Amino acid sequence: MNSNKLKILLAQDITDPSDFPKQTPLLRQLDSAARCPICADYFDGPVSLICGHSFCSMCIRSVISSSSSKAQCPTCRQNTTESQLRPNPAIEDIVTAWKPARPFVLSLAKHEEDRVAAVSPAPPKKKRRPSPPSPAGPSGIATQATVECPVCSRLVAFEEINEHMDNNCEATDSGKPSSKSQKAQWSYLMGQPKSKGKEKDRADAEDRLPKVSYDILKDKQLKDKLLEHGLPTTGDRAMWTARHQRWTMLWNANLDKSAPKRQTKAGILKELKKWEEERKAQKEKPTVDESHLKTHSSEFRQLIAAARSKAAITECVDAPSGSSPAPRLPSEDDIIVIDSDHEAE
Amino acid sequence: MNSRSANSATALRRLMTEYRQLTSGGSPDGMFTAGTHQFRVFGVGTNVPSSGPISESDFFTWEALICGPKDTPFEGGVFAAKLTFPTDYPLSPFKMKFDPPLLHPNIYPDGTVCISILHTPGDDPTMYEQASERWSPVQSVEKVILSVISMLAEPNLESPASVDCSKLYRDNRAEYERQVWSRAELFVVT
Q: Which superkingdom does the taxonomy of this entry point to (chain A) (predicted)?
């Protein structure tokens, strides 16, 4: 059932701090510091709690909404609420820079490891020499000399420094992955929307959705709430509640990301749809597994037999008083349904 | 009531990461490594507990092999436990069941491990545990197994899962150790 998904995942390279050689513990530390402790992946829209611990926005929102008792920080267990979440753009920037830089740094670290292994026990090598914002294209080649720009103090390749300063420290057009997002960030700071249509969509998306007490809403009100955001109103009330809850979560988590990384409303809707499909697929799974039924089949059979004989007796008792409706003889199917219900609980 | 945001894709990813971490590095102090039947990276034989999914098609069921800690009646044994992960892992903890069951005050007669780190703050079967030692999504397979290893060495008699065994442990330690051994010997395989 899951095997397809599993294969896709296996094909993907799952990265992990232990990719870095043991001799570079600081690189391992750096890599794990850029990861959310809940999903163990790189931070996606990181937020900080009041205690200072950070998580992906979606991760911590899921934890808070699913915990039956008081919501707590998963790391230090300080009480928290959803309203205390604060976006952490500093971490987001680090992740943005580290992700594309990682393969290069990794290759350097591996290279260094081989070199050290070839030579006899050498002094500990320098770590973190190549600074992340310069993920030079073809890896393996030694880093080009970089210099610090005297104006914006960003690291720039030596041969590009003049052009860089001529352009008012706008990122140079060497096609760096980070330069694009930086440009976007600048334009965001300067209030020059890059692409008007999208920016507008984001701008009116600026408001976070408040928490809703679903229990006090009437069906009609709940439906209106869904329609307000253009959500489907299929399914029953529980489905509506779940859908609206998930939508609120996705929506607010999206706002925790920095503006250029945000999704459009359509993107969030798509994500919601995916979630619903997954949820449905899970519900359709049989709640009782075959092996359980098989191993306990004799007990089930006994129970059915016992129930039948009991039913027969009640029928006999009831039979003389013709007025009462004839009790239904429980068929085998009925009983199994009851059993499996118990299993589900 | 509250909709658990079950997202098996997240769970799967996190499990894969944890598995990778266990296989590639193991814990820093080298207390255990991991592997699967499929990939044949088992570290049994040497004094290394290991854990990993039982089959490639189901990443939500793992098998862990745990060495009996030193200076305990479990010393020298390798014990197999089945780990069953929920689809909303790591929001909910996984379940751990020794198969064959171990004789231990904190292990139910059917082999299920009763340890506070595997209970969510909401449910408290024994009403003893503090919230501070419960499951939280930042815990991991590695941390839980380390806790279980230390639990094997030092049973928590305040909340016994197996009352008989707990009594035995308290009143007649020698007999407890003997029974642990004779039970363990029953399952000596390959």
A: Eukaryota
Catalytic residue among B22, B114, B144, B146: B114
Q: How far apart are the first and last CA of chain B?
A: 48
The count of C-alpha atoms lying within 13 angstroms of the C-alpha of B44, restricted to the half-sphere facing its C-beta, is: 17
Q: Is the pLDDT of residue B26 over 60?
A: no
Q: Answer whether B113's CB lies under 8 Å from B148's CB.
A: yes
Q: How far, in Å, CA of A130 to CA of A141, rounded?
A: 12
Residues in chain B with CB shorter than 8 Å from the CB of A41 are 13-14, 17
Q: What is the pLDDT of residues A182-210, one digit of tens each?
A: 666 666 566 554 444 444 444 445 678 88
Spell out the domain ranges in chain A. Answer: 12-116, 141-190, 208-281
Quick one: tokens of B170? 């308290």
A275 touches chain B (CB under 8 A): yes
Q: What confidence score (pLDDT) does residue A280 get?
A: 79
- Domain A12-116, classified CATH 3.30.40.10, yes or no: yes
- Prediction ipTM score: 0.73
Model's pTM, two decimal places? 0.63
- CB contact set of B20 (below 8 Å; sequence gap of 6+): A14, A16, A18
